[in-house]
Amino acid sequence: MPRFALTLEWDGTPFMGFQRQGHGPTVQQAVEEAAFSVVGEAVTLHAAGRTDAGVHALAMRAHFDLSRDFDAFRLSEAISARLRLAGHPVAVIEAREVSEDWHARFSCTGRSYEYRIVNRRAPLTLELARAWRVARPLDHQAMQAAAQLLVGKHDFTTFRSVHCQAASPVKTLDRLDVRREGERVIVEAAARSFLHHQVRSMVGCLVLVGRGEWSVADMGAALAAKDRCRLGLNAPPEGLYFVHASYPGE
């Protein structure tokens, strides 16, 4: 049974997230329906991450199985065309056949996200629903200092959604960096895996530090508390992008 790995890009604005749900459109449903219209059989799409409503993806890895051979390039082109005709802002950047033991989620050894903040008073136009506008000036250097307190292996209960289904709140954060590019403040996060809302929760608290409402020490205290009630702010979804998934041998 051939297995095809896809690299997907999407605008998360109209979706309720990646995973199929009964109360609104999702990326998984859109791609599965497009694939069905191309190959004539139902497929189940598995992805490296399950993004929330409004979250975007630059290069999400996913896969599904078919009962027969199919040219990978033709498959990617045809699915993208069906998605476009259906009005879904999703594109298949690449498709290739992989071994049957390759799994988009379970074979993944690392995931990275980027959070985009526009630090200005003027409202957003071109980046509306694609970045978080923060009007008050941000000290990105203080944000970077606070971010380093979160790097490493910790109990991230404070930065974990109450709806998170992970077995443990303990995760190892490989990287959390903050940089400024003009009026844009970019937060980059990398780890093997993340808790539900972890990146948005960390970014929200970093913004409190950047605005001077929290000190760097306050970030450390929030982490040490291991208490969701100590979370200062959860950043909105529209600034978050899934950037990359890593696999052995790639």
List the helices and strands and how they pair.
Elements: E1 3-10, H1 27-39, E2 46-47, E3 56-65, H2 72-85, E4 90-98, E5 110-118, E6 132-133, H3 140-148, E7 152-155, E8 170-181, E9 184-191, H4 198-210, H5 216-225, E10 240-246
Parallel strand pairs: 3-10, 5-6
Antiparallel strand pairs: 1-3, 1-4, 2-3, 5-9, 5-10, 7-8, 8-9
Report on this model:
This protein has about 250 residues and is of the alpha+beta class. The chain has two domains: about 5-100, 2-Layer Sandwich (Alpha-Beta Plaits); about 110-245, Pseudouridine synthase I, catalytic domain, C-terminal subdomain (Alpha-Beta Plaits), CATH 3.30.70.660. Helices cover about 25% and strands about 30% of the residues. The chain is built from five helices and ten strands; from the N terminus they run βαββαβββαβββααβ. Strands 1, 2, 3, 4, 5, 6, 7, 8, 9 and 10 form a ten-stranded mixed sheet that branches. A hairpin with an 8-residue loop joins β2 and β3. The protein is globular. The mean pLDDT is about 95.
Q: What is the terminal-to-terminal distance? A: 23 Å
The CATH class of the largest domain, by name, is Alpha Beta
Pairing-aware structural class of the strands and helices? Answer: alpha+beta
**How much of the polypeptide forms β-strand, as a percent range?**
25-35%
Q: Report the principal-axis shape.
A: globular
CATH topology of the largest domain: Alpha-Beta Plaits
Please state the second-level CATH architecture of the largest domain: 2-Layer Sandwich
In CATH terms, the superfamily of the largest domain is: Pseudouridine synthase I, catalytic domain, C-terminal subdomain
- Nearest-integer average pLDDT: 97
N-to-C series of helices and strands: EHEEHEEEHEEEHHE
Tell me about the biggest sheet? 10 strands, mixed
Helix proportion range:
10-25%
Query: Which residues form runs of ≥5 with pLDDT under 50?
Result: none
- DSSP summary, beta strand count: 10
